[in-house]
Write a structure and sequence with these properties.
275 residues, TIM Barrel, two-stranded antiparallel ribbon, 11 strands, 31% helix, GP_PDE_dom
Length: 275
């Protein structure tokens, strides 16, 4: 079965890293929901893609001031949340939706620099939260930064970690290489159980060598049906997509199994309840 991963929820129709986007991903049916996390100055794990919006750095401010990311490609701009959600709120949402089997795939964001106080702080904060939830919620951690992946793998050996990679010309301290051999060897050395290459560097050699090394392959971010089909032909293990409905349609056309829809609804009042 190919895993369908909702990129920041459903980025095709909702603002990314919002509770509304996560609810929509569950409604459509996803095996995993990918989210991005930063640590605020008041110690909150806030979900947003970019550290800086409107010249305000989420790492230097308070959670209450962290605005949500608005993705220009989305079509829904109603009831925009007043601030970015926290990881704790998202974990509560997953429990409320009976979606603890859906993988919450947490990307730890850094600047790709050498290990520093911020890296230590976010790993410490994240590991504490995940340790408390690892037996009740399906979890996974990913990062472009091998230092983060190594630290999380050591602190939480039961939570799978993924080595993220994008095209780059050299190896920085906080960035996985993109060359197949180097990516695979570095992923293994840092304790990763999977690699997540940018779609532009995905090829048959990378997939074959990763599988031979015991690593799963989850390319990102696939936007069109043709990209999804190309990844399927390479026998990847999952696809990170902006449009979950499109992924369903494409996989169904290939006769593949699909994750179930998980719509959220409030329980109806019992017949004996007071009006």
């Amino acid at each position: 079965m190919i895993e369908i991963q909702g990129h920041r929820g459903v980025l095709a129709t909702r603002h990314g890293n919002t509770l509304a986007s996560f609810v929509e991903a569950l409604r459509l049916g996803a095996d995993a929901i990918e989210v991005d996390v930063w640590l605020t100055s008041d110690g909150q794990l806030a979900l947003r893609h970019d550290a800086v919006i409107r010249d305000a750095d989420i790492r230097l401010g308070f959670l209450r001031d962290a605005v949500v990311e608005k993705h220009p490609a989305t079509t829904t701009d109603v009831d925009v949340e007043t601030r970015t959600p926290t990881l704790a709120e998202t974990l509560a949402l997953m429990r409320f939706a009976n979606a603890t089997a859906v993988v919450l795939d947490i990307e730890v964001k850094t600047e790709g620099t050498a290990w520093d106080e911020y890296g230590q702080a976010i790993v410490s904060a994240l590991s504490k939260v995940l340790k408390a939830h690892q037996h009740e919620q399906a979890l996974r951690v990913r990062s472009f930064d091998p230092q983060i992946v190594r630290a999380m793998a050591a602190m939480l050996p039961d939570v799978p970690v993924i080595a993220l990679s994008r095209a780059n010309t050299g190896q920085l301290p906080g960035l996985y290489p993109s060359a197949p051999d180097s990516l695979i060897s570095t992923a293994l050395a840092t304790g990763a159980s999977a690699i997540a290459p940018e779609f532009g560097i995905l090829n048959a050699q990378l997939v074959t060598e990763a599988h031979l090394a015991g690593l799963k392959v989850y390319p990102w971010t696939l936007v069109t049906a043709d990209e999804i089909l190309e990844a399927l032909e390479l026998r990847v293990d999952g696809v990170c997509v902006n449009d979950i409905a499109l992924a369903h349609e494409t996989l169904a056309g290939q006769g593949m199994a699909l994750p179930p829809a998980r719509p959220i609804s409030l329980p109806l009042l019992g017949s004996g309840a007071m009006a």
